[in-house]
Amino acid sequence: MSELKNKTIAEIVTNDISTASVFKKYKLDFCCGGGKTVENACKKANINVDDVINDLLNNKPKNDVPNLNFKDWSAEFLADYIVYVHHTYVRQNLGIISEFADKVANVHGQHEPKTIEIAKLFSQVSKEFTSHMAKEEGILFPAIKAKEADYNFQFDEKTLSLTEDEHEGVGSLVKKIQELSSDFTPPEWACNTFKALYFKLEEFTNDLYQHIHLENNILFPKVKNL
Ligand SMILES: [Fe+2]
Ligand SMILES: [Fe+2]
User: Fold this and answer.
1) Measured in angstroms, how far is the CA atom of residue 133 from the centroid of ligand 2?
2) Which position among 27, 73, 203, 226 has the lowest Cβ density within 10 Å, counted as fewest Cβ atoms?
3) What is the average pLDDT score of the chain?
4) Can you give the pLDDT at residue 62?
5) Which residues surround ligand 1, an ion (CB under 5 A)?
6) Are 13 and 102 in the same domain?
7) What is the count of structural domains for the chain?
8) Could you tell me if 211 and 107 lie in one domain?
9) pLDDT tens-digit series, residues 77-108
10) Cα–ligand 2 centroid distance for 43 (angstroms)
């Protein structure tokens, strides 16, 4: 524990770029002011260093896909799982990724115009996916649950294909970001914010693919068979 306190923020972020989110949460600068030790930076910002260290120790990159029997779950349980795990992840991360994307575009956009393009694309992802999730939570998932509870419930299957179309739309935006970023590979000269942006974009993309897979390939076929 004390070992981490005495490391510089830049050192920690360089060793594990996923920790950038923790420093971002506490508004500790890991880009230009990263030369301070965690302890000194916390003292200066009047932040409890133990809180930061705890978050650093509990920080895990969120790329692991759990090996669960999604297929055996009820539609209701799966819909709730998707909301609690994936919708929550998206809501917790849209803001921080947008901030990173805007910062990188502002600082590097002139000599790396694709960073401006990436920021624009991500802001579109953010807007479209926020309303997409609201529709699922407010209309589609309650209807799925009602259909599962009562066979006679009038469920309009067209909603499923409309939802799949929206998945395709957001999927193609994310694909463009992946192409522009050369599969999330930062240039050699990239600063920590740039690296953190690409790390988070990759994590977001992996989460999105798993999320859409659960809906398109498991939840929706389940509903069609109810
Ligand atoms: Fe969803
Ligand atoms: Fe969806």
Assistant:
1) 6
2) 27
3) 91
4) 62
5) 136
6) no
7) 2
8) yes
9) 999 999 999 999 999 999 999 999 999 999 99
10) 43
Q: What's the rounded Cα separation, in Å, for the pair 70 and 207?
A: 16
- Cα 13 to ligand 1 centre (Å): 31
Together in a domain, 15 and 99? no
C-alpha distances (whole Å) from 157 to each of 77, 79, 225 are: 20, 16, 11
16 CA to middle of ligand 1, Å? 29
Return the amino acid letter for 163. Answer: T
Residue type, 122: F
- DSSP assignment, residue 66? P
Q: Please name which ligand lies nearest the alpha carbon of 87.
A: 1
Q: Phi, psi (5° rounding) for residue 185?
A: -100, 110
Nearest residue to 206 via CA among 165, 177, 169: 177
Low-confidence ranges of the chain (pLDDT < 70): 1-2, 31-33, 61-65
